[in-house]
Amino acid sequence: MAGEHIMLVEDEEDIRELVRLYLINEGYQVSVAETGEQAMALASKERFDLFVLDIMLPDVNGMELCRSIRANSNAIILFLTCKRESDDIIAGLENGADDYVVKPFNPKMLVARVTGHLRRSVLAASQAGRRNDVQLWRHGRLEVDFGNYDVRIDGNVVPMYAKEKQLLTFFIENPNQVFNVGQLYDRIWGWDRESDERTVMVHIRNLRKKIEDDPGNPRYVVTVRGFGYKFCLG
Length: 234
Hints:
It is built from eight helices and eleven strands. It is an alpha/beta fold.
């Protein structure tokens, strides 16, 4: 895994240097930025595999920076935040972040989270490359082209983030089976469960908005009260 390019955006020097050293020690190439403006300038010139973004920056809000990155990149985005309020974390996930880490944090835990996400990304790409059985999956108005991973409704491409596509693919491959939040987080995000509940629930809510006729009364991604979620194809 070593060698992937990571951008760390953090205005607190002590945190920035500590995380940078931990990531470099794991073999990652790390570029750092203190402000959103510096981060956007770097992102316009180089390709990154993963971004670690502080939400509270001195110039550009981390949410705005996330939206800017998402407009041009499907790279993994992790938020660093000292805000524990659910609304702030959910807003970050809804703006395209894949996951979050709350300050104060153990740098080893952050590196483990980074490594887990990058491994999952490589595995997902590898599985997509080996998929030879079903290139085009269709059910009702919903269609998934596993050749290029386009998702369509009535033939129109639906913009989706990588984690949403991975979640949808997992559901399609495991129809009518019930999975709890922890199981979904393990399968799609990784082993660390600090942020599993909110991360999974926000991504499911976003997925429903994109594929369901009525997100409030879903046909596909159905809640099984007290147990979890299942993808209905009955």
